[in-house]
Amino acid sequence: MIALVLFMLLGISAGLARTAGPGQDQKRSPVTDETVRTFLESHRGQWRDMNVPESDARVLYDLIIKHRYTRALEIGTSTGHSGIWIAWALSKTGGKLITIEIDEDRYREAVANFKKAGLSDYVDARLADAHELVPRLSGPFDFVFCDADKDWYPEYLKAAWPKVEVGGCFTAHNVTGWMSGIREFLDYARSLADGETTIDHSSGSGISMTFKRPAR
User: Fold this and answer.
1) For the chain, which domains are there?
2) Looking at residue 33, what is its pLDDT?
3) Which of 113, 109, 93 is nearest to 101 (CA)?
4) Strand (E) positions, the chain?
5) What does the alpha-carbon distance between residue 170 and residue 200 come to, in Å, rounded to a whole number?
6) Which of the four pLDDT bands, split at 50, 70 and 90, describes residue 47?
7) Tens digit of each residue's pLDDT (9 = 90 or more) over 102-115
């Protein structure tokens, strides 16, 4: 009888281990909303170097919370404004962010900002060329935010889309302008048989959202 009870307990434990949510790590430091809000408030109006406006950052935050995304990729960290909002949301869903920045100065500033905001444990910041790194990442991802060189947007989508899970979303910034690559990017996104694309106009920049649906 004792052996049977032990066997059942071991089975339950193994099942819990297998079903633990992705990115859940009991060793990570807890994040308080007050810490993040205080940091963001202290930096209000100071975000330069191609960071997104707060209205767009909130869109990303809300998307992650609404869909309970946990495996996020950001292409183009800059100094970390969007990454902070993404990681803040992921701290609530039990997820983690991989973010890529090619400029060393911006990368170092972003890493410092993640730490000050109390979010370092939820961010895997990479100093790298996204042209080379994105195709090499294994994924899978359920959320991608692209805010890097616009003429390469179509290539980023082509490289990342096969790694996006069904129900996941590929988002991209500055899609309402006439910069090189944007029209090609949107045309390709809208041509995806397993994708559905809309555009959020919370700011003049525009954020495209391409959700992955089951293949027909």
Assistant:
1) 52-212 (3.40.50.150)
2) 92
3) 109
4) 71-75, 96-101, 123-127, 141-146, 164-173, 195-200, 207-212
5) 13
6) low
7) 999 999 999 999 99
Q: Which of 198, 186, 131, 138 is nearest to 162 (CA)?
A: 138
Question: pLDDT of 84-103, one tens digit each?
Answer: 999 999 999 999 999 999 99
Of 38, 61, 62, whose CA–CA distance to 117 is shortest?
38
3-class SS at 17? helix
Four-point Cα dihedral 149, 155, 158, 164, nearest 10: -20
Distance CA 76, CA 54 (A): 16
Structure tokens at 88: 């803040």
Helix axes of 104-116 and 81-93: crossing angle, nearest 10 degrees:
40
Q: Which two tokens stand for residue 69?
A: 């995304």
Least trusted range by pLDDT, from 98-112, 135-149, 200-214: 200-214
Residue 12 pLDDT exceeds 70: no
pTM: 0.84
| Cα 123 from chain centroid (whole Å) | 10
| Pair of tokens at residue 52 | 């997104």
Strands (E), 76-122: 96-101
Location of structure tokens 């988002």? 171
**Helical (H) or strand (E) element with 131:** helix 130-136
